[in-house]
Amino acid sequence: MAYNRLRTMRDNIEAIRLALRLGVEGRTAQNAEEREILRKYAGFGGLKCILNDANELADAAKWSKSDIELFAPTVELRRLIHDYSKDDKEFARYMDSLKASVLTAFYTDNRIVDAISDALKYSGVEVKSFLEPSAGQGAFIDSFLRNDRYPGAEILAYEKDLLTGKILSALHPSILTRIEGFEKIERDFNGYFDVAASNVPFGDFAVADPAYAVSKEIAYRQATKSIHNYFFLKALDQVREGGLVAFIASQGVMNAGSPFIRMELVKRADLVAALRLPNNTFSENAGTDAGSDLIIFQKHTGKKALSADEEFFIQSVVDRGTKVPGNKFFQAFPQNVICTDAKVGTDQYGKPAIVYHHDGGVDGIASDLRKALDETLHLRLNLELYNSNGIKPPTPDPVKPTPTPKPEVKPTPEAGEAWVESSRSHYQDIYFKSVREACALMARHRDYEKIVKLCDTALEIYPLVEWVEEKMEALLSLKRYGEALKAYENALSMFIGETGNIPSDYVLARLKQVGAQLQNASGGIEDIRKSLEEKEWSAGAYYCSYPGFIDCFRRENRLTERGRRKGILIICTIRDGRDCPIENQIRLQEYSDILNQVIHDSLRRGDIYTKYSPDQFLIMASDLKKDKCRMIENRIANSMRSRCGQKVILHLQNVDLGEWGGKNEEAEKLQKQRDAGKRKRSKKYYMQR
Q1: Strand-pair category, 129-132 with 154-158
Q2: What is the DSSP string of 69-135?
Q3: What pTM was computed for the model?
Q4: Parallel, antiparallel, or unpaired for β 325-327 and 341-346?
Q5: Which residues of 510-524 are buried (b: 16+ CB within 10 A; e: fewer)?
Q6: d(CA 236, CA 221)
Q7: 355 Cβ contact list (under 8 Å, min separation 6)
């Protein structure tokens, strides 16, 4: 069936209308009719007309003849979203998100996805935890979970577009849905999932992932510049040893001239499948003709060598005559190209490319894809590695025909590995020393601009606090205070905010030392007020980062010592219904998010709180008596119980800062001296009167 833009537009509008109405009513899709309406949502990848102005009738004059039939539905779409938005800001967020999705929202036909999930199931793959990093309306989730083939499986789905995320949540209320980018996934999920499967976004779009951007590995730094490469490496981080990553991606993954991404992929995983799909794979469902590949990896970090297939996979090639890029893997295995016809043409960007076509349409593509997948999975899938979670039982050494037993020798690294590690450490030390000496020399000559450039390069290779210090001192010497502030904030994000871990005391001390050097340019009281105030007013408690909480805690502790305040520290710990630590990381994150919101809503605007660990929050409450403290604790516990039922037990422990760690003798002595001095001055003043 050919792609019909007008019908797709109508289906999308009705799905969005229903999703917004369900959100207002506070429920999800409850019957087959509502689920069918939501499942017809196909995204706006083939409907770029929504990027045009459609605010009033006069805007129709700006539309092309081919798009004019979609003008009225586009106006209807905008009005629908506007009517359900709380204010103009929310409406703008919805529209910006929708327009951004136009470049990447090309949804996969269910028949293609079924071929993938059926082949994996037929090969013996059982799924207990499943990750969908770019879910759309949930085609991969529907396919993998249909007919209850994996009962009890845990699902985590990411969808960046706000409206599509609402549709996904309404369709799949039993899974954990995150309406945000995949780059936001927490480090707690590293090595957690059995399978990650998706049709990942296409295009050279940058991804804001500080951990990757400052990695010493060039592949990770390059991956942040192309979203399809990023998804592969990031997904490999999330699956367990032996787990699978099965992505439909652009041909750019395998055709790109730079081999670093492919080298990193086959270094960390075994190549299970690489199948080139015809350009008409998305014609019926998304209205676009684009080349794509289905690539499946099996995580195998302990591998010793590359297979011949993986050696081919690394090598991209360019035809000398046609200038068409390709990959040596498909030259070696032409049967892995799913098509009935191929000719030289151009891709969607007008560059030379081989255009593959399948005369059988989507049904024919799905059928041939399933056959090719069955064959390649039979040859390359290591089911033993998958089922053993990557832990293989030790294999006894073969019996040797020698009567003399040899003494047991502990295994040592191979000579090559030891040499490489030794050399790496040696050259790293030389590099660090060279940068330090170069910075010192340039500082003596007051060549601060070169110091900034050198430190930027050093931070890309080895992200150290030392290079941040050098860069900030140079910027401060140049009186570029705004850039110095940005460098400091980036350092905080790099070493604290994005890692998900509590930093060491050493790193905290160094960052504070760096921040202490920062001085703003002299300004009036209004400039200072604007820089200090919160950007937006909000009710409830104030959430701060853990380093910020440490400073607030120490200040509160000092005020308590002086008798000026009565500070209370409340520790909130989440446990499962059996009062045991929650091992399911998806559920733990879900409950943690709920507790975060509960604490925010339950406390006063003057209280602060932070996340100490995945299952613990810390609250700092000032001027609070014990009975009021119990009232707040009951409010938090009751609110948590109403949202989570008996699935979660919340432990609340409070500590009076006046009793924290016992009495501080030095503080008591100092306070007594001050009190005595006050009484003496008061008596002297009275006698003078």
Answers
A1: parallel
A2: GGHHHHHHHHHHHHHH-SSHHHHHHHHHHHHHHTTT--PPPHHHHHHHHHHHHHTT---SEEEESS-
A3: 0.63
A4: unpaired
A5: bbeebeeeeeeeeee
A6: 16
A7: 279, 289, 291, 342, 343, 344, 345, 346
d(CA 252, CA 247): 13
Sign of CA dihedral 411, 417, 420, 421: negative
- Region 549-570: mean pLDDT is 80
Q: How far apart are CA 273 and CA 298, in angstroms?
A: 10
**Rounded distance, CA 434 to CA 458, Å?**
11
CA separation, residue 250 to residues 276, 288, 324, 408, 468 (Å): 10, 13, 15, 51, 37
160 Cβ neighbours under 8 A, 6+ residues apart: 97, 100, 101, 134, 179, 180, 181, 182
Cα torsion 71, 76, 79, 80 to 10°: value is: -140
* Contact predicate 207/173, CB 8 Å: no
d(CA 387, CA 348): 41
Contacts of 592 by beta carbon, 8 Å cutoff, 6+ apart: 574, 611, 614, 615
Q: How far apart are CA 6 and CA 516, in angstroms?
A: 60
CA angle 88, 90, 95 (to 5 degrees): 95
pLDDT tens digits for 571-620?
A: 999 998 888 888 887 888 888 889 999 998 888 888 899 988 888 999 98
Could you tell me which residues come within 8 angstroms of residue 211 by beta carbon, excluding any fewer than 6 positions away? 494, 498, 499
The dihedral region occupied by 563, where left means phi > 0, alpha psi between -120 and 50, and beta the remainder, is left
Name the DSSP letter for residue 273: E
Percent of the chain with pLDDT over 90: 31
Is the CB of residue 48 less than 8 Å from the CB of residue 113? Answer: no
CA distance 549 to 55: 47
Rg for the chain, CA atoms, rounded: 30
- Per-residue tokens: 465: 């606090």
Mutual orientation of helices 162-171 and 88-101 as an angle, nearest 10°? 90
Among the listed residues 47, 98, 41, the one whose alpha carbon sits nearest the alpha carbon of residue 71:
47
- Distance, in Å, from the CA atom of 144 to the CA atom of 172, rounded to the nearest integer, reads 13
- CA-based angle 506:614:490, to the nearest 5? 45
Identify whether the C-beta of residue 173 lies closer than 8 Å to the C-beta of residue 117: no
Token digits for 453?
């450039």
- C-alpha pair distances (Å), 485 with each of 214, 239, 469, 475, 489: 19, 37, 12, 9, 6
Residue 671 contacts by C-beta under 8 Å, 6 or more apart in sequence? 561, 562, 563
The pLDDT tens digits for 271-296 are 999 999 998 888 776 667 788 999 99
Distance of alpha carbon 337 from alpha carbon 524, whole angstroms: 67
Do residues 16 and 163 make contact, with C-beta atoms less than 8 angstroms apart?
A: yes
- Rounded to whole angstroms, how far apart are CA atoms 676 and 689? 20
Q: Give me the residue label for tokens 């798009």.
A: 67
Angstrom distance (rounded) from CA 492 to CA 514: 10
Q: How many angstroms separate the CA atoms of 358 and 362, rounded?
A: 8
Total Cβ atoms within 10 A of residue 599: 26
